[in-house]
TrEMBL record:
Protein name per its UniProtKB record: Transposase IS111A/IS1328/IS1533 N-terminal domain-containing protein
Keyword rRNA-binding: no
Domain Transposase IS116/IS110/IS902 C-terminal: 223-310
Domain Transposase IS110-like N-terminal: 23-164
Coiled coil region boundaries: 192-226
Keywords, in A-Z order: Coiled coil
InterPro entries reported for this sequence: Transp_IS110-like_N (IPR002525), Transpos_IS110 (IPR047650), Transposase_20 (IPR003346)
Protein transport found in the keyword field: no
Length: 452
């Protein structure tokens, strides 16, 4: 493998205007291969250079502005940081989606860099979100602790395997307490003794890392908010925050659940629709949320998340109910971070029963507003096809959406709601989450009317 810079005559270069540069870089551990195109797709510069600051400076000498694309891999971070610090517009491409868009039979470094340059020129890059350096540091810390715990678990399993080989029964005995470890050493098995020493070293590293994580979590407002949820520790809170990066990049809670991999897969064609198991997402985030949901339902019996879990467990398998509870917990986390509010176990504020500031569904929120406010002034007609109007209360700044198919018209507080209004409306938004009034209104504006 070549480590030195290639000769100058191996780099193809033509004159091109500064604002018409589109660059695709195929990044490797030791070197990079780049292709520069103009707005017509003609190659104006192409060649290899060392994957180092000196190599980048020589290749990009004279580049004031350019649009650059690189694929996400194990060596993308130094390349991305150098290009970003030098004021170049760089995008990180999703490797799998890039191959789907620009799959070729003959794969070379030259072809890969040309494909990336073509995609960035056509503005078709499947871009990956790149968090800030602070969030990337949190991710590294959270993953480091997770990997150390996984290694410790491997050595514990190896000790159990050695005991099974020798027919030693350990049922009812705790092996990882001080007395259990002393008993294991007294057995005089060399492999077990060596594994215990490795576990002791890993425990010291994990404890030191956990102290660091605890200090970081105590300084983050988002982590303190998440730690108000029963079953969410400082490590879980920090992991969730590090994986999410910023809640502002998710327009709704459903997008966040899809990002975490807690949404069932769907295969639909014509009138046939099949829902399968969860897939994709962020493995560490999904695992952390599942463990948090398990701890939550075991320790918060009066929580609305636990009530949802118990209700679903009576009809569905336990594992499926746990995944659904993790998804509901993530929706609650979304609105806690969005609004900066602590966890409400009952789903509503205790001092204001059934308040629309608590955790209620949009339809329940709107029905509560009908009873509590007098909505008299018609503001505007939102959607003539759906017959949705917006009214404001004369006593407060709250608003209400009036729809012929989803929400009953405003009536006096003493009157009884019709049976149709008490039933679950069609096309109802299902998530029981922290949601302010304006968010509920915005969501309902996109609901289409039921078929006749």
């Amino acid at each position: 493998m070549r480590l030195a810079l290639p000769p100058q005559d191996n780099i193809i270069q033509k004159e091109v205007r500064k604002l018409d540069r589109y660059v695709g870089i195929d990044v490797h551990q030791e070197f990079c291969h780049a292709t520069v195109q103009d707005e017509t797709g003609e190659v104006v510069k192409q060649g290899e250079f060392a994957n180092s600051p000196k190599g980048f400076e020589e290749f990009f000498d004279g580049f004031d502005e350019a649009k650059i694309a690189i694929e996400a891999g194990d060596a993308w971070q130094p390349v991305y940081d150098w290009l970003d610090e030098n004021g170049l517009d760089v995008k990180l491409a999703h490797p799998h989606k890039t191959r789907i868009i620009a799959e070729v039979k003959i794969k070379t470094d030259c072809r890969d860099s040309e494909a990336l340059a073509d995609l960035v020129r056509a503005d078709l890059i499947p871009e990956v979100y790149v968090p800030c350096e602070g969030r990337r540091k949190l991710r590294r810390i959270a993953k480091q602790r997770g990997k150390l715990v996984m290694e410790r678990t491997k050595f514990k399993n190896r000790i159990r395997a050695e005991l099974r080989k020798r027919g030693i029964d350990v049922e009812g005995r705790s092996l990882w307490t001080n007395s259990g470890k002393s008993w294991l050493r007294e057995l005089g098995i060399d492999q077990v003794t060596d594994f215990l020493e490795v576990i002791r070293t890993l425990n010291d590293r994990i404890k030191r890392l956990e102290r660091k994580i605890k200090n970081i979590a105590g300084e983050l407002k988002e982590a303190r908010i998440l730690m108000t949820i029963p079953g969410v520790s400082y490590y879980s809170a920090l992991t969730i925050i590090a994986e999410i990066a910023t809640i502002k990049r998710f327009p709704d809670s459903g997008k966040l659940c899809s990002y975490a991999g807690l949404i069932p897969s769907v295969r639909q064609s014509g009138s046939k629709e099949i829902h399968g198991s969860i897939t994709g997402g962020r493995p560490l985030l999904r695992y952390t949320l599942t463990q948090c949901a398990l701890n939550h339902v075991n320790n918060a019996k009066n929580s609305h998340v636990n009530k949802f879990y118990e209700k679903l467990r009576r009809k569905k398998p336990k594992k499926l109910a746990l995944i659904a509870a993790a998804r509901k917990l993530l929706k609650v986390i979304y609105w806690m971070l969005k609004l900066g509010e602590e966890f409400l176990g009952e789903g509503i504020r205790p001092e204001v029963p059934n308040s629309h500031h608590g955790v209620v569904t949009p339809s329940e929120f709107l029905r509560n507003l009908v009873h509590r406010h007098v909505f008299v002034e018609l503001v505007h007609h939102v959607n003539p096809l759906s017959q949705i109007d917006v009214r404001v209360c004369k006593n407060c700044p709250c608003q209400i959406v009036e729809s012929a198919f989803a929400v009953p018209a405003p009536i006096p507080p003493t009157a009884r709601l019709p049976r149709r209004a008490r039933e679950r409306p069609r096309n109802r938004i299902e998530d029981t989450v922290h949601r302010p009034p304006i968010e509920a209104l915005s969501a309902l504006q996109n609901i289409s009317p039921p078929k006749a």
